[in-house]
Structures are given as C-alpha cells and as structure tokens.
C-alpha cells in the first residue's frame, strides 16, 4: 500500500541498504534479468546473477528474504539498473521511478556531445568553444575535411608560437602560465624562468628558410580575415588553406616542432607574428590551451573507460587510425577526433582529470543538481608532450591499472592515484591559488554541464518519475579554466580507493535524498547536492 517495493539490478549494496533502512522491500530479479513484468536484457547465466545478488547483500537476514519472496509478484515502484536498456520505460506505470532516461546518447556519447554542443548558441548565450575542445566526427565527409583544415591552421599558428618562443617572446593571449607542482611546489615560478623543453633556435642541420614562417603568416592572416566575416549562422571559415602545399608545410612543421630543426626568423617577421597571434587570441577561445605540438586525441564514438583512445600529433596518423587500424570494430563513422588540451594544470608534473557528478530530476522543466564533492584521477607517469603514451595522458582508472607507476614518482602523489576535491583545494591554497576552486573551476564546470544539457534537451526521452545520475570528466587549463571531455551515464560506483569508497557511498545516499525523501518533504536536506538550474 505504501508502494515501498524496489528492484536493483547489479552490485549496488549501498542503494539496497539505504532503501531497506527506509522500510522498503526488495523484489529480487530472476536470472532472466526481467524487471517486474517488464522485459529486460539477459545478463548472463544464473551463476552470474547469483554472484551479483551476493555482492548486493543476498545474505540479508531471513526476514528480509521472506519479505522479498512475498513481493515477487508485485510491481516495483523504485527501479535502479546499471543500464538504460534493462527496462523499457514506455511500459512502466506513472508511479514507477526509474534511474534512467531514454535517448541520452545525445550527450553521453562522444559523437552525440560533439554534434549537439554546436547547437548551444541557439539555446544560450554560451560559446561551447570556451569549455569543450573542438571536435569532429570523422565518418562525416564534411567534418573530416573541416578537421584537416583545422589541423593545418593549428600547425600554422603553432609554428608562429614556436618561432616567437625560441626568440624569447610570448605574445599576449597565448601565455603559458606556470605549471602547478613544478619546482618546489610552494609558489608559482614564471614560465620564463623555467627551462623550456624545446631545443634552441638552431637545431640539427641548417635552419629552415624564412619562407616557412612567411607562409604561416599568410595562412593565419587569411584565417583572421575570414573570422571577421563569418555569416550570422556561424558557418566555419573554410576553406582557408587553398594555395599552400600542405604536405610539404606539415613535414617542415614536424621537423621544427618534433625534431628540433632550426627556424630562421627576421625581426620584421617577429613583430608580425606577435601582432597576428594577439589578434587571433581575441577571436579563438582555445588558442591558449592548444599549445604548439598540435596533439589531437582520437576516440571511438560510443566506448567508455578509455578503450581505443589514441593521442597523436600527425595528420596522416589520425586518418590512418580512423580507417580502422586500431579497432576494426569501430568504423570511421563512429570515431571522433578532438583537440588535446596541451596547456594543462598539472600537479607535481602529472596530469589529472576530475570526475564531477550531477543529477537530472526532470527534463521539462530541465532541473539539474550539482554535487559539491568530486574526485581526481592521476596518471601514473609524468606529463610530456614528447611521449604520447596512455600512462601519461589518459586518466581513466581502468587504463591506469594496466600501467606501471613511474620509478621516480613524486613522493606527494597519492599511491592509489586518487584525490578528493578537498585535497585539490588544499594543494591550490599551498601554491597561492586558494580562490581558483570556488571562483573559476566550479563555476566553469557548472556552466559546462548546463550548456551540454540544454544543447541536447529536445533529443532526450523525458519521462516524469525518472531521474539519472551522470559523471562528467573535466581537465583544467593552466589558468584553471575547466574543459569538458565527456559525460558518462551510469558512472561507476565501485570503490577503487578509500576516497572513491567514501564519495561513491555519499553520492548514492544524497541521490536518494533528492529523488525519494524530497517527494514527501520538499524541505528535507539534500546532502551535497545543490540545485543549479531549473527552467
């Protein structure tokens, strides 16, 4: 009569325990994976189902087992599953609560996010280029061509940056702020005082001719002109790269940036480089974070946990890999290529990302709750743009478990490669950036989450009575601005460390406070969840 019957699919002992403590009774799933009278996916043998039930607390008291048996023919009113496809939400009653929405691939797949964030200016004043690294779907012929154009233009800008850096000059708008954690780790050191990893101006062999810089100046000047004449629809300013032998230009660019070849730069060219890059900085929000190595990250469109991801700095390699050489199961149509954030905020010389949870309790009106706790995931090797291996550049726990930690790992890095956001805040305070978390990082993450959801809102299958918890992954630029990498449905709740064990339990507890307790008491506490958006 109180409708306190629930079903949980998968190993979620915290959810089970919290619901039982509220007086709910579990309707156990049979081995067919059916939820109540609703068809679901088959999830393996009876043995696998038994193991999952054991993980979820099948050894409960005998009274609970009896209760579960008594409700086996009843409708569950709260359903928590590990995948949306386990339940056909169209067959549910209005009073059944489900922890998923349909069609969320519009923002939880790499392809969906890549495609739909471009529509954000139609819904909001926000510019997706300010928080989402530019991205292309390689299976679409027009987008593949746009990527090739972008790669070439980025190479031209990078060449101008390298030329100026080697001349001891960094133009405004492209500054490389000091990397946190380098040196003593106490206060920031101006980058001009940190030895630069690039070779000196004169590299092996004779310097490349000044015509190379002249060509880069011409291309970047044309690009700047086109940016000033984009039509109201925001069509990309392509093609700009006609009239240039790009095969030869890119080979020369690779020699300068990756092999250390010398580069001749006249005084007049130096002034033109500086002025042009300063003007481009005012039109390109990503000029500062893109660095000068032209590294891109290639991702299968719908995979998770870092599977199949490759970093590369050469155009021909991107096109070759997207042809299926890495994972033939992912045809070119499912690959996306995204600009890698080169100018990263590092901690003790090591890359990290952050898993940030948020909760949607309605799509019409769109209602978003942001979790005030989050956790960091560190790479196992020191950051380097000269080595593009997974151990240095992919922070996913499942990837890093396969990598050996660095022999000379910084002693203050966590052995389990996980920090809480509170540890990050303490670190930022120690290096003189105490206000960055609350003034820059959190507001930027909130804006990115709201922007991503608004851009996909009309494509999601909205259902009253459903809710969904998501996990967004961010990295931060050297200026502490967040860059959204992806959004995950069904984020892992597995306790991979002491920090995640505590935080994953907390976010599950607070999710139930929002979606169950608030129905009876709208004034009840919601834990660390903060309502950040309601239309």
Automatic annotation (TrEMBL):
This protein's UniProt keywords: ATP-binding, Cell projection, Cilium, Cytoplasm, Cytoskeleton, Flagellum, Ligase, Nucleotide-binding
One protein family per Pfam: TTL
Biological process, per Gene Ontology: cilium assembly; cilium movement
Organism name: Podilymbus podiceps
Any one Gene Ontology molecular-function term assigned to this protein's record: ATP binding
Region (Disordered): 29-59, 171-201
Primary site of residence: cytoplasm
GO cellular component, as recorded: axoneme; microtubule cytoskeleton
Gene3D superfamilies the UniProt entry points to: ATP-grasp fold, B domain
Protein name (database record): TTLL3 monoglycylase
Compartment list: Cytoplasm, Cytoskeleton, Flagellum axoneme
Catalysis: reaction(s): L-glutamyl-[protein] + glycine + ATP = glycyl-L-glutamyl-[protein] + ADP + phosphate + H(+)
Entry superkingdom: Eukaryota
């Amino acid at each position: 009569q109180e409708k306190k019957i629930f079903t949980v699919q998968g190993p979620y002992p915290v959810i089970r325990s919290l619901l039982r403590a509220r007086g709910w009774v579990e309707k156990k799933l049979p081995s067919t994976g059916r939820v109540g009278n609703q068809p679901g996916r088959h999830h393996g043998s009876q043995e696998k189902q038994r193991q999952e039930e054991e993980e979820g607390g099948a050894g409960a008291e005998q009274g609970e087992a009896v209760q579960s048996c008594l409700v086996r023919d009843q409708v569950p009113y709260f359903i928590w599953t590990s995948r949306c496809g386990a339940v056909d939400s169209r067959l549910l009653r209005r009073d059944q609560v489900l922890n998923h929405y349909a069609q969320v691939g519009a923002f939880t797949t790499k392809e969906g996010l890549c495609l739909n964030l471009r529509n954000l200016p139609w819904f909001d004043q926000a510019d997706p280029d300010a928080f989402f690294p530019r991205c292309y779907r390689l299976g679409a012929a027009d987008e593949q061509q746009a990527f090739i154009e972008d790669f070439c233009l980025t190479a031209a800008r990078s060449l101008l940056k390298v030329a100026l850096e080697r001349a001891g000059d960094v133009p405004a708008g492209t500054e490389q702020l000091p990397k946190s954690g380098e040196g003593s780790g106490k206060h920031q050191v101006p980058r001009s005082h940190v030895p630069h990893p690039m070779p000196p101006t004169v590299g092996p062999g004779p310097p490349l001719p000044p015509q190379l810089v002249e060509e880069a100046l011409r291309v970047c000047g044309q690009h700047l002109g086109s940016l000033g004449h984009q039509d109201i629809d925001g069509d990309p300013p392509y093609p700009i790269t006609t009239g240039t032998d790009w095969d030869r230009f890119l080979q020369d660019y690779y020699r300068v940036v990756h092999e250390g070849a010398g580069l001749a730069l006249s005084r007049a060219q130096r002034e033109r480089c500086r002025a042009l890059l300063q003007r481009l900085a005012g039109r390109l929000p990503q000029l500062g974070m893109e660095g000068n190595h032209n590294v891109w990250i290639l991702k299968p469109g719908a995979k998770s946990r870092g599977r199949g991801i490759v970093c590369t700095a050469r155009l021909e390699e991107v096109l070759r890999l997207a042809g299926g050489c890495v994972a033939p199961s992912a045809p070119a149509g499912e690959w996306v290529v995204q600009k890698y954030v080169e100018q990263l905020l590092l901690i003790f010389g090591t890359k990290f990302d952050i898993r940030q949870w948020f909760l949607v309790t309605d799509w019409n009106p769109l209602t978003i709750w942001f979790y005030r706790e989050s956790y960091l995931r560190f790479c196992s090797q020191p950051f380097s743009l000269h080595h593009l291996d997974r151990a240095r550049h992919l922070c996913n726990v499942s990837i890093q478990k396969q990598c050996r930690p660095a022999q000379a790992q910084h002693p203050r890095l966590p052995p389990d490669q996980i920090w809480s956001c509170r540890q990050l805040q303490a670190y930022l305070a120690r290096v003189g950036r105490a206000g960055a978390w609350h003034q820059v990082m959190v507001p930027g993450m909130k804006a990115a989450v709201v922007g991503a959801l608004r851009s996909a809102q009309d494509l999601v299958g909205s259902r009253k009575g459903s809710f969904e918890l998501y996990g967004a992954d961010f990295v931060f630029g050297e200026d502490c601005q967040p860059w959204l990498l992806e959004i995950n449905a069904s984020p892992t709740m597995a306790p991979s460390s002491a920090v995640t064990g505590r935080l994953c339990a907390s976010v599950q507890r607070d999710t139930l406070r929002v979606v169950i307790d608030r129905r009876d008491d709208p004034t009840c506490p919601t834990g660390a969840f903060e309502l950040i958006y309601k239309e």
